[in-house]
Amino acid sequence: MRLKGKLIKWDNDKAFGFIAPNGGGEHVFIHKNAFSNRNRTPNINDIITFSITKDKQGRYCADLATYSGEKLKIRQAKNINQFSIYLSIIFLSGLVFALLFNIISSTVVFYYFGCSMFTYIIYAVDKAKAQRGEWRTSESALHTLALIGGWPGAAVAQQTLRHKSQKKAFRSVFWLTVIINCGVLSWLLSVNGPTL
């Protein structure tokens, strides 16, 4: 849901301010990065249309903000990172080959495929929510899904849906979850052998 309000405070040096929503309620924090048009300097009394999201500390703030009369343009990555997609395909294919040679059980293979499909769907739903300006799935939830085995689906979703594919901090944590998940799987295979 898109909201509208008036910019009542702005600090040019720190590049943030507060919006008073038209419907009343608490003032909404907004950073300059939340504006789709970053070439324009915000001014007091500007009418702003915006969505609500959460920052890294879990606090509500404005996002996807536009000035009155402007249309929302969601920035998208121009290029798809083929590495993420290929790595996911190679990993899942490796699981299938490991199953054929009785290195792992079918339960592990079905688990990873199921978890990856579920994670892809969650990314698609979150992308749709972002476009509609609705409440979003938390980044910690997305990272948890990747950590427990859904990272192949997450990696494909990030690139094909162009969602969460540009935020460096998110990507760094995501790749850490991939390393941890693969490390745990390798350790379990070394300890339990072909019975896993």
From TrEMBL:
Residues annotated as transmembrane: 83-103, 109-126, 172-190
Keywords recorded for this protein, A-Z: DNA-binding, Membrane, Transmembrane, Transmembrane helix
Start and end residues of each CSD domain: 2-82
GO MF entries: DNA binding
A Pfam family of this chain: DUF1294
Superkingdom, taxonomy of origin: Bacteria
SUPFAM superfamilies found in the cross-reference section: Nucleic acid-binding proteins
Residues annotated as signal peptide: none
Coiled coil: none
InterPro entries per the UniProt record, alphabetical: CSD (IPR011129), CSP_DNA-bd (IPR002059), DUF1294 (IPR010718), NA-bd_OB-fold (IPR012340)
Protein name: DNA-binding protein
